[in-house]
Amino acid sequence: MAKDKKVKTNVMRILDAEHIAYTEHTYEVEDGKIDGVSVALKCGEDPDQVFKTLVTEGNDRNFYVFVVPVKQKLDLKACAAAAGVKSVEMIPQKDLLKTTGYIHGGCSPIGMKKQFRTFYDETIILFDTVLVSGGKIGTQVELDPNDLIRITSGTTAAIARDE
Question: Which residues form the YbaK/aminoacyl-tRNA synthetase-associated domain (predicted)?
């Protein structure tokens, strides 16, 4: 009798290869509600503990990744200061796939086409575990924030502000 094999995302394969413990969370997407707060509620998690991944381009033409709580938005001036550049701005959504390998709603800081400098809002270390995209819409992974920061060579900074 063949076992039903669960399909793993690239994010999960990377975490497995690095021997990093994680929990997969899946959620329904048919209703079209894939914004971060809706995802947190569908997963039964505190929105403060669920983080979204945003990609920017600096005035130096380099890409920077910022990971913030889903209820908050980027403070672009603070992001630029953290990255050591004059300014950053969000990349156009149409450029996300070719830049990162991920689509809007499924962008993870783990496993992008290229490892860009990655910054996490400083609140991430307040939690034992956090959720980030599992690399596709409908999937989140929950893991220790220290493992997440380590695997992406990330740093923390005050980069988020209330909506």
Answer: 40-150
